């Protein structure tokens, strides 16, 4: 019987590991679901916005370590907010300089944003060096909760989950309960009619892009609790994130959550039984096969085109 | 795009096309071999193998409108099929006598394999390997193409899924070290049917074989694109529904273009293995696949010969800058991506076709247009121009 309960504990803990990567993936995918699902822009530089958030958190951690000891305990909360703001600001700038000229050429946005991602990676490398860095987590985030003697649940994971839940709620309420959300959804479903009804579609595009990038920045802050940051940290997430969005049904936020959850969990569970790379291959392959059988994704909104 | 294409088709005489083909042939067959040593020439030969991929992208992306971000998969499969044969020949029982299991490739021995895996067995035969080079990628492309295009998955979704396939294959190759050679790839290739491919004379021969194959591929491709099929592809790219309503099976057309591109890429991959002497997963994944797309875009996405020039220029640039200014290279290629998309959407071929002056003025107009729109949007968030733009786009 002990082995059974051990296995159970392992499953719970492995499941929780899956939840941590689920949080990063979901925050990334929420941003991308807005940018790609709602606006049809393929943002290949989305991963680099995660990196922006991660480096922002690192810088703030260093600052609090060296000069501002009073914020050593609380810097992480500040970092989450600052990461959002910086990534969103860079996103708005990018939208203004580049993306808005390409709204009707989705495949070209792909190439241009890929170029952008290369440039951003090199900027990171020149600024922070090629070596990976990690933020120092405050003490209160380091411990773990033990509901039973055999189960360890890290506190930083709990915080991340709370954060992700909060952001998901905010995005949901924003999209479905506010006037701004109505504008965004109207623009997505029928851009011309939305424009004719007096919605400034350009403005909607701009802020939606900024919001998506900001969410990726926040994902970056969350990412620092599970891994160390390098210039290419973000680009490792880009394929997964796109698959999450497509798998969930590009325009459905519920689908986005469901698919982020299933992909992250499948991967972390499989990782326990197989090697990491086999687990990854199996997960991606399953997603692709399901997508070939059901190209519209798990959840899809029917819109007349 | 639509109307200018037709005008172009009638205006460009086949004479002009023939001339540019002959210029390319002279460049590849006479100028390069005479002006370079074998080291540089081998390097050019390596770049030219990427040109196969770029040419495939011209068909599928430039003409068919289907962007695949996983062409590295086919390049890699072709290359690996060739490399598996060469590796088996290089690891005969005599040469590998010190291994605990002689007669199997060294990396298998290091990974405690004691017998040749079943999928390696056909590659003992040169004939079967040469058949496998185009066949394996073609079958994969057929499978993916049929599965996706019959369900009318296209455009962006197709790009993302092919990208995921590229990620899967490279992770798989790196992870299954005992079967594939892992991240190092398949190395130490020596002879092909007894002929040493590492000597200078072999490198010369392989360069010319490669150049002839490339020129032949260019001829076949150009001929195909000039035929009804090429015009159907363009029609499909510009107004897919109309082609469908005219009674054509759009899915079959797309699948054909995709498979054709895959076979071309596989040829390039096999020639790469022969000329460079190894094959590794770094030519399979997402990054090389997208770099090949940018080669095609720089050359001009709808120009077969442009693809060759684009590949040569991008790769010369890459070698030159990454040797001398490694930090600068990523900035440059990134900027190149953005510039090609924003300012020169027709690439080098556009420059050539429209003449330097005209396309410079086109680029200038585009830059001024960007600036104007910038000013307009910064001064006021006026609604009407945006709506007008939307309606205009929708009418197209």
Report on the structure:
The complex is a heterodimer of chains A (305) and B (396). Chain A contains 12 helices and 2 strands. Chain A is mostly helical and 305 residues long. The model of chain A has no long low-confidence stretch (mean pLDDT 83). Chain B has 396 residues and is mainly alpha-helical. Chain B has a two-stranded antiparallel ribbon. Chain B has 18 helices and 2 strands. Helix content of chain B is 76%, strand content 1%. In chain B, helix 4 (71-90) runs antiparallel to helix 6 and helix 16 crosses helix 17. Chain B has helices spanning 2-11, 14-35, 38-63, 71-90, 106-110, 126-149, 155-175, 177-180, 200-226, 228-238, 240-245, 250-276, 286-299, 304-324, 326-342, 347-354, 356-379, 384-395, and strands spanning 191-192, 195-196. Chains A and B meet through helix 4, helix 8, helix 9, helix 10 and helix 12 of A and helix 7, helix 13, helix 15, helix 17 and helix 18 of B.
Brief synopsis:
The complex is a heterodimer of chains A (305) and B (396). Helices cover 73% and strands 1% of the residues of chain A.
Shape of chain A: globular
Q: Please count the beta strands of chain B (DSSP E, at least 2 residues each).
A: 2
Quaternary class: heterodimer
Classify the helix fraction of chain A into a percent range: over 70%
Ends of chain B: how far apart?
A: 10 Å
Cross-sheet strand order for the largest sheet of chain B: 1-2
Major sheet size, sense and barrel closure of chain B: 2 strands, antiparallel
How far the N terminus sits from the C terminus of chain A, by CA atoms, comes to 58 Å
Evaluate the radius of gyration of chain B.
Answer: 23 Å
Structural class of chain A: mainly alpha
Q: Kindly state the mean pLDDT of chain A as a whole number?
A: 83
Strand residues, percent of chain A: under 5%
Helix count from the secondary structure assignment of chain B: 18
Using the CA coordinates, give the radius of gyration of chain A. 20 Å
Largest inter-chain contact set: A-B, 52 and 53 residues
Number of separate strands of chain A: 2
Query: What is the count of DSSP helices of chain A, taking H or I runs of 4+ residues?
Result: 12
